[in-house]
Write a structure and sequence with these properties.
The protein is about 70% helix and about 0% strand. It has about 100 residues and is mostly helical. The longest helix is centred in the middle third of the chain and has 48 residues. It is rod-shaped. About 10% of the residues are buried.
Length: about 100
C-alpha cells in the first residue's frame, strides 16, 4: 500500500492516482520475488544440510536413508527443535575436532 500526502487538497488527479497504483503493483511484485528467491535459496541450503546429517546418521546407525531421515524427524519432534537446526548440530559435531569427520578418520 502506498500512502501519499500533499499540502494542497485534491492535489492528486486520476492520472497520478493510476500511476501510484501502478508503481505500488510493481514494487509489490519485486518485493514478493525477492522474498521468494530468498526462501528458495534457504530451502536449498537446508536441503543440503539435512542430506549431510542424514548421511552421517546412515553411517553411524547403519541404516538406509529413509531410516536415518525418520530418526532425524523423530529426534526433531522429541526435542522440539527445527529439523534444520538439529541437522546443523549433527553436521557441526561431526566436523568438529575430535568428531568423526573425513579428516579425523
Amino acid at each position: 500500500m502506498l500512502t501519499a500526502y500533499s499540502r494542497k487538497p485534491r492535489a492528486f488527479d486520476e492520472d497520478v492516482t493510476r500511476l501510484g497504483r501502478l508503481f505500488t503493483a510493481h514494487v509489490s511484485i519485486a518485493v514478493d520475488s525477492a522474498a521468494e528467491r530468498e526462501q528458495l535459496t534457504e530451502a536449498m541450503r537446508t536441503r543440503d544440510l539435512i542430506g549431510q546429517a542424514t548421511g552421517i546418521l546412515m553411517e553411524r546407525m547403519d541404516v538406509d536413508a529413509a531410516g536415518a531421515f525418520d530418526s532425524l524427524v523423530k529426534a526433531s519432534q522429541r526435542e522440539n527443535v527445527k529439523l534444520r537446526d538439529l541437522a546443523r548440530r549433527i553436521v557441526d559435531a561431526h566436523n568438529a575436532p575430535g568428531g568423526r569427520g573425513v579428516n579425523e578418520r
